[in-house]
Sequence to fold (663 residues):
Amino acid sequence: MTISYNWLKEYLPRLPKPAKLAELLTLHSFEVERVSKVAGDWVLEIDVLPNRAHDCLSHLGIAREIAALTGNKLKMPKAKIDEERGERIESLLKVKIKDSKLCPRYTARIIKEIKIKDSPVWLKKHLQAVGVRPINNIVDITNYLMLETGQPMHAFDYDKIKGHQMTVRSARLGERVATLDGQRHKLEPGIIVIEDEQKLIDLAGIMGGQNSQVSNQTKTVVLQAANFDPLSIRRACQKLSVRTDASDRYEREIDSHLALFALEGATCLIQKLAGGKIVPGVLDIYPVKRKPAKIRLDLKEVENLLGLQIPGQKIVNILKSLEFKVKSGGEFLEITVPTFRLDVTIPEDLIEEIARIYGYENINSVSPRVELNLPKQEEILERQDMVKDVLVGAGFTEVYNYSFVSQGDRLTLELENPTNLEQKYLRTSLILNLLKNVKENLKYSEIPRIFELGQIYLASQKKLPQERKMLTGVALDFAEAKGIINLLFEKLGLDLSAVSYQSSDLNFLWHPTQSAIIKIAGQSVGRVGQIHPAVLADLEIKQSITVFDLDFEKLTKSATSQRTYQPIPRYPSVTLDLAVLIDQKTTWQEIKEIVGRVGGKLVQKVELFDLYQGEEIPQGKRSLAFHIIYRAKDKTLKDEEVNLIQAKIIKALEKRGGQVRKK
Fold:
């Protein structure tokens, strides 16, 4: 907000010097970003806080703040109006409000026999000092009153209003209005407009219409000061991509009591500067009058919140300086809040006002006296961090995708008010977004190792959707994916012997023969395998993609922080490698079980390190290569013992249909 120092002096003759004033406002009210000299005046650029825009986007609002801070008495402007005798305004102009929510208050006056001319020098200087270009005396007066009081105003040419009847209503779909800036706007319901008997004449609260504007030929004006719904004005500005000084004030809400005060001020100036004759009476449509809020303030609570004892009379004086009405009652004060302070609704708001006027610099710094308790450990958050660390340590990169997607199915939840119409559904899986990430990365490199830990949203018969946290990642191949899964399960304290992989049921995302359901103790906790070729084709991905998709919530419920420890082996291990040609339908889990069963207690571990299909491998077959680690607890194994067990394992595998491959 740009404020003229000379203008402020009209309300507060004893003002501090500009630099001192800037320091005072910054310390107690709003930050003054810049003080500069403009043509014999000083201009202050003030950053008015959003919660005070309704009363401080004006010179009077800032002057009121300064009066409270300096103890000076505010000199309010007074309007003296001499009405002509004759027909009253009610017989010359009819105004109808279709919806009082859109226009809580509407005031208007009619002024006849005006003379359109240049404004006097003092008025031009005031406007120019704050960056407003003078146009003519009528328009300049409406701008002046808005900058003085914060109440936007508009002047219509009375003779251009057909039927001398005005209706304030919501626009109809497809209606158009041409505004003062020469633009023609296509309207939607919810946008407030004013019409006469034939046409739209005003984009209410934003900009006047071309067909009713004041010109050099204007003789009679309708002067309007109204109060419009803030939310409707904000939405209209967004839809029409229009923003004006008037809309900036309306969309932040202004005091409805301000309308008549500003109207009378503008009428008085027009009478002085344009020689107009005032038609008797004021149109004032105000069906639901705003009542001032009343708050009971406990003086002990002031001390509790501020940590400072301020004398009761000092508190009363501060509140009265801000134009609050105060009624004392022992340890309590009954406060009546002025209607222009829309931001003050609870006792804490009053205490904040007391503190800033008293001065935060006058509150001594003391160490807080509080009982410090260690925060409760959130186990699920710790496990999330641990899982992420494991995956990053294994060479994976975490990604974050939007929860909104562009396509939905019968189970997808659709948003009522999406911020982007292209993404109006809640995701039911993390996989598709990860595949899009893969597609983008394939333009520049190989298949990326990426993962995401995030929410999915499933339709539910309850009011709220079912939310599930999933851990999904893209690996280079099945072996790597399974290795990562086992590593995660180990870190979560899960029993790997209870983990099994079973054939996947039909699902449009997964390859029908190259994917599996992961189960722990019979409970399904996720899937792993290749993505269905049809899905990859739709995304224009030409390579096979392996994905693991884990229900993180189920995993954490099964997880345990308890660990079992084994002593370090006293005797060395023996590792032998084996490569077996097997049928494609035979799973690695089956091979692993055969090795473990035949080898017994001497087989400590079986690790798959290679899976191959291609040249020299018959169709329908694949080659699995794995380490078998032997170890005895009570002795060092001899070659003869290990070779004997290895031969039994080979025989068992051949019986299952396997063929041992020679080097």
